[in-house]
Amino acid sequence: MSGIVAEVRGSAGFLTLDRPKALNALSLDMIRALAAALLEWRDDDRVERVAVRGMGREGPFGAFCAGGDIRFFHQAVLAGDPRLEDFFTEEYTLNHLIHGYPKPYVVFLDGIVMGGGMGISAHGGDTSLRIVTERTRMAMPETQIGLFPDVGGGWFLARCPGRIGEYLALTGQAIGWSDALAARLADGVLAASELPAVWDSLADAQAFEALCERLRQPAVAQGLELASRRAEIDRFFSLPGVPEIVAALEADGSEWAAHTAATLRKRSPLMLHVTLEHLRRARHLTLAQDLRMERDMVRHCFRLRPGAASETFEGIRALAIDKDHAPKWNPARIEEVTPEEVRAFFDSPWPAHAHPLRGLA
Hints:
The chain is α/β, with parallel strands linked by helices and 361 residues long.
């Protein structure tokens, strides 16, 4: 079972993430099935556009994708499973394939959209449509599990307006549809009740053109939490480092600043530092360059401190395995992280000619 349903109807290819009990968390089989379908349809003249959705627990839609299969990561570390390396190489290759896809790529971001779900939705080219609904909850929460916003997260978050990307990357804050549009992480909004009919209509080229025209009309924004805090976000999250950001937040005195500082204090101190450096480097990179850097970084997440000593292993244990929500981070405090510990994540373990993503253009 690949966890993906692929079909061609009319002039469109339709992909459904079909692992609803796991909120469509991406497995290696799913990544391979998505890549295989997209590669096949790229060269198939019958297929003029591709649509992607998630299967909810009560039927189509309602959940898009909760990210990568972090339980698999935990098991793979314990077992020394080499498929852990394949997972990230193939996932990042898929992200890049979507970024350069030559046909319209329409993704229905209904319900939860996190981590790896962002990787298969945020990278569409100029002809992509990223559709959100009133049920969308979007986030890159990786610092909560001792990881960093990967799947090209450094690239797309660094291109959000102002310092919104740094804020979302470090805090892992979830946002709704209005903020997703404001952050340039979505292109249009539809009511969730409309999705089944719109999905079926995409088999027809004229219906697709009508949808594109409709989504070009500006939506009436609601619940713009990011926009209302934009000045504060830019002021704090443009500071040079994580210690400076947290110190300024804690000195501010406002309820929002105190809450934000408390959130950051719960995240992996080491990975907060790594994540901020990641975004600031990625702002000046192409997506291919960023994905190669992320591939280096994610290997270090599991190899710099092997096994249970890994921040990522510990974060997954606390959140998803033991569920005690009490990770023992090392270092324990933001102020204890050294520049040397951060720099180590950006040293490639491979020479350029042997890098697993050397083929990305």
